[in-house]
Amino acid sequence: MRISIKNVQIAAKGFNPGESYHVSVVDGKIAEIGPSSSLAEAELEIDGSGCWLSAGWCDLRAHFNDPGMEHKEDLESGALAAADGGFTAVALLPNTEPALDNKKGIRYILSGNSQRLTQLYPLGAVSIGAKGEELAEMMDLRQAGALAFTDGTRPITNTALLLKSLQYLLHFNGLLINHPTEASLVRGGQMHEGINSTLLGMKGMPVLAEEMAIERDLRLLEYAGGRLHFSGISTAAGVDLVRNAKARGLAVSCDVSVAHLVFTDNALLDFDTNYKVNPPLRQEEDRKALIDGLKDGTIDAIVTDHQPQDTESKKLEFDLAEFGMMGLQTFYASLLKAGVLDASLLAEKVSHAPRRLLGLPSIEIKAGESANLTLFSPEFEWQFTEETNFSKGINSPFFNQTLRGKALGVIANGMHHFHSAVVVKTNG
Amino acid sequence: MQQQLSVKHLLGIKNISSEDIRLIFDTADNFKEVINRPIKKVPSLRDITIANVFFENSTRTRLSFELAEKRLSADVINFSSSNSSVKKGETLLDTVNNILAMKVDMVVMRHSSPGAPHFLSRHIKANIVNAGDGTHEHPTQALLDTFSIREKLGEVEGKKVVIIGDILHSRVALSNIFALQKLGAEVMVCGPNTLLPKYVRELGVKVELDVDKALQWCDVANVLRIQLERQQMKFFPSLREYSLYYGINKARLQKLDKQIVVMHPGPINRGVELSSDVADADNAIILDQVENGVAVRMAVLYLLAANK
């Protein structure tokens, strides 16, 4: 099968921005890339004008709730939402029921990958049940296919356990991912602590909680060695701490969720539970610092932090509602809203860096390589509605809005999925 | 002069204008005159059914609302549950929709979750009056407090009011701050530092840790009830120490070179935040607040009923 993508800009090294290319993919491999359409007749022809092609996107942080809470999402609905959002790989949090703390769970996630376009990669639990008490069998989890280790939505609060995890992971240079929060300072917290939480009478989660957790974890990293990744940095102070740690040569990395690049805690003034996320949405100065951190290399990756919830978990009083926001399908439109526009920066933060962190093979766009590609348009206008939502979740602030920017196609694992808007002809 | 409220619901003082507040006051003046007549009842809300839905314990607020409703000739039903209903397996929305299915026009709700009435207002048709939502707002309390200051001192504008006690967990404090500021008063908060929100200064209020200095500064001291039930952990060492350092007693007031007005939203912990000799003195207007509460709530219900 030959797919030909015509007149597309390519966001990768060796290609000139502003110049259009024709890319043909034959049986899952990139066959030709050229400046003109001196290409053989294709069965599927894609109009790439106005679009970009980059290495397939990889999400470092999503929660598919499968096994255990499949009414919120399952592997198949999540994988479809991911493909529609432009993702050819997604790393899944271990906070399932049961947690991904045993090789059976890891294998369950991986088992369907040969039939999927979007490859799902399990993150193994650091502790049994991801409860932060006793170490899980991480060597065995690694052997079964866990790419990195985290207790996911639960921060590792026990200092001794975190130290042991870092030491233990050195056996195979494994990556430890922690959500940096000093738990005792955020207990009962609903949102960022500041003037808005004061106005709303809600318990706040102070910036201090993130700062202290990052400081502690960095000290442990310095002491133990190993590789540490902070997931979901949300504060200007957090960005500064990681920047300084990197300057000191520590093996530390971090990511930011797309929601924190777009929204601030002003979004909460009407008690809309769609904006109830953890870490909480912060203030404008934090949002700006996060974008600066992306540009200067302090923040390695942008994640969707896709956390689908059902109506029963969100259509509630604010303090009773669950945390989390969907993020896969609206990811690119959100980034554009945030003003993160540069296509090659995007390729680095959403494809190359996350794959490097997970130890996945790097993706090159050149003839002979297997095709792992995302096609996206910064101009395409669309509506995110119940009909276009592939996830089982209902918790997106973008529902029924006209959005600009969308991933319009993905090719990976010998499969493809293109939005009808870019398909010129099929079976020619 | 404005004749209608700018809102359909009374969710909080934050959401209404100073003109709204003045309209409520002027309307309450009339109702206060009514409830002091031999026949205390008017037919204003004769065709209106009001549900008092209380998910938190309350005696005086519920009584005050019920009396206000009955004085206006509304039909009244009461629903109370000490837990938020979701714990019993029914959501707030289901509970309220069940009540509304019985053709109810207005809902007066107290709930432990900040924003619960705001949430409700997006999903139901009836007018909603917030009778206290967690640690967020208690708008009718702030209205009756400022109404009482106006009654006692002639006006609120330019007056110095200190709110003393647990500011952190107090919906009365927050609503009072908003109301006092909208009416042009100067506001100070005073209490142990652990009971003051870290960002409270950004609300535009003064902060004073020393209660004697606060009393010397003010024209009015609104003394809050120490709410042990709303605290997840101890925010101060003991009631004894609180009472020694923040309790308002006659000795403290006699040191001042002026007389100040003392208020309390009730119920009073006598001997803790307020001593009996202060609570029962002439410059304490605590029972006036209670009386005004009925008139102010009548005004709120009456005006909202016109904004269907």
Describe the structure.
The complex is a heterodimer of chains A (428) and B (308). Chain A has 428 residues and is α/β, with parallel strands linked by helices. Chain A folds into 2 domains: 113 residues, Urease, subunit C, domain 1, CATH 2.30.40; 303 residues, Metal-dependent hydrolases (TIM Barrel, Alpha-Beta Barrel), CATH 3.20.20. Chain A has 13 helices and 19 strands. In chain A, α4 packs across α7 and α7 packs parallel to α8. The longest helix of chain A has 18 residues. Chain A starts with a strand and ends with a strand. The mean pLDDT of chain A is 96. Chain B is an alpha/beta fold. Chain B folds into 2 domains: 141 residues, Aspartate/ornithine carbamoyltransferase (Rossmann fold); 151 residues, Rossmann fold. Chain B has a 5-stranded parallel sheet with strand order 7-6-5-8-9. Chain B has a 4-stranded parallel sheet with strand order 2-1-3-4. In chain B, β1, α2 and β2 form a beta-alpha-beta unit. In chain B, α1 packs across α11, α5 packs across α6 and α5 crosses α11. Chain B starts with 17 loop residues before the first helix and ends with a helix. The chains are: A alpha/beta (428), B alpha/beta (308). The interface between A and B is medium-sized, with 24 and 27 residues.
